[in-house]
Amino acid sequence: MAELLHHNSLRKFTFSSIKKTRTKGIQKLSWRPVQGVLTEDIRRAVVKNGKDSLDISRVVNGMWQTSGGWGRIDRDNAVDAMLKYADAGLTTFDMADIYGPAEDLYGIFINRVRQERPPEFLEKVRGLTKWVPPPVKMTSSYVRDSINVSRKRMDVASLDMLQFHWWDYANTGYLDALKHLTDLKEEGKIKTVALTNFDTERLQIILENEIPVVSNQVQHSIVDMRPQQKMAELCQLTGVKLITYGTVMGGLLSEKFLDTNLNIPFAGPPLNTPSLQKYKRMVDAWGGWSLFQALLQTLKGIASKHGATIPNVAVKYILDQQAVAGSMIGVRLGLSEHIQDSNAVFSLALDEDDISSIQEVTKKGKNLLKVIGDCGDEYRRA
Ligand SMILES: NC(=O)c1ccc[n+]([C@@H]2O[C@H](COP(=O)([O-])OP(=O)(O)OC[C@H]3O[C@@H](n4cnc5c(N)ncnc54)[C@H](OP(=O)(O)O)[C@@H]3O)[C@@H](O)[C@H]2O)c1
């Protein structure tokens, strides 16, 4: 970490919060942390960089769950459900070009909002998408054509946020792509350029190239605290925010999995979604099912004390972390619904006892930064 975040290596930053001083002949950048930009509404936060900014709801509806593997999604029921989430104040949706029908559903949804809700409601709705291209040559026309597909599917003139994913750092085409995305932003086709699954080293390079990314979407949960080890420090220095996924670990961090034993075949609830399978692997890498049960019991104790639920505690703990603007909760639109519980996160305040009892358990887990690597490295292992 020291070499990555060596203060001299951040010398190109021009953020107003960074002040140059000289100590014993070594140029040192002293800084005051860039504060999280929360809006008056505690349920919303602003992500910004320079003149670009976007306010989002702090609990974001994740739409990977529409892409197959989580049950059959009925188009009309899904759009009705999106309206219900938005009506309840959960007005921000996260998609990707590769999430099956997600962007198309948003296109239908946003048209219903335009027709059936007042203009001030439309103002609050946000559609964040991702672009996950193969690591081919990133020409201006390739980037433009790809972004136009998402604009068309989502039926918006300008994408609220385009989060960019890259598979292979050996190929520096990611910088070309981000420069073209910045041009499209200047043209008004994108409001904010952002990242997903980038590591700290590459985020720093991107910022040094003066690409004004506002956020990085990363896996972050009570089990996966990797973003707080290196990434959050750079975010704090530069004002870039984190939007988190895997925060309820596909539902593993819920009462449903409390007091279950997945070590015995068929004994527990089935791991029948791609998220549950993904995050069960995380549990295995971190410390195994017994330690995870100890964590669930601790979380249950905290939840009961506050009249809350395990997912409430899991999400609030991450929303309270340094640099986190928003946390995603995946939605199985029209199949299951957690609107009330998701909103209950905002009336929960965790106290010092809660935090230390969580840390008492999590310190028994392995350091995932050492086991897996920095944010997103799980997508880049050979
Ligand atoms: N950038 C990336 O690489 C990346 C990767 C993964 C995900 N994501 C994003 O993150 C979003 C979330 O996906 P995820 O895989 O991380 O899933 P997740 O949010 O950890 O899990 C969602 C599941 O948790 C359960 N759940 C949610 N709230 C609950 C509550 N209050 N009580 C009980 N159970 C609850 C629900 O299961 P039931 O529906 O069965 O009740 C829901 O389907 C995705 O949609 C996507 O937008 C991004």
Bound molecules: NADP nicotinamide-adenine-dinucleotide phosphate
| Percentage beta strand | 15-25%
CA-based shape: globular
Rg to the nearest angstrom? 21 Å
User: Based on DSSP secondary structure assignment, what is the total number of beta strands?
Assistant: 12
Element string (H = helix, E = strand): EEEEEHEHHEHEHEHEHEHHHEHHH
Low-pLDDT stretches: 1-36
- The percentage helix is 25-40%
Q: How many domains would you count in the coordinates?
A: 1
Discrete helix count? 13
- Tell me the CATH topology: TIM Barrel
- The CATH superfamily is known as NADP-dependent oxidoreductase domain
Describe the structure.
The chain is α/β, with parallel strands linked by helices. The protein has a single domain, classed as NADP-dependent oxidoreductase domain (TIM Barrel), CATH 3.20.20. It has helices at residues 75-87, 102-116, 119-122, 140-154, 173-186, 200-208, 231-238, 274-286, 289-306, 310-319, 339-344, 352-362, 368-371, and strands at residues 18-23, 26-31, 44-49, 52-57, 59-62, 92-94, 126-131, 159-164, 190-196, 215-219, 241-245, 324-330. The strands form three sheets. It has an eight-stranded parallel barrel with strand order 5-6-7-8-9-10-11-12, surrounded by four helices. Helix 5 (173-186) links the parallel strand 8 (159-164) and strand 9 (190-196). Helix 9 (289-306) packs across helix 10 (310-319) and helix 9 runs antiparallel to helix 12. The protein is globular, with a radius of gyration of 21 Å. The structure holds NADP nicotinamide-adenine-dinucleotide phosphate. Residues 62-65, 94, 196-197, 217, 245-251, 254, 275, 309, 311, 328-330, 332, 336, 338, 341 line the site of NADP nicotinamide-adenine-dinucleotide phosphate. Residues 59-361 form the NADP-dependent oxidoreductase domain. This is NADP-dependent oxidoreductase domain-containing protein.
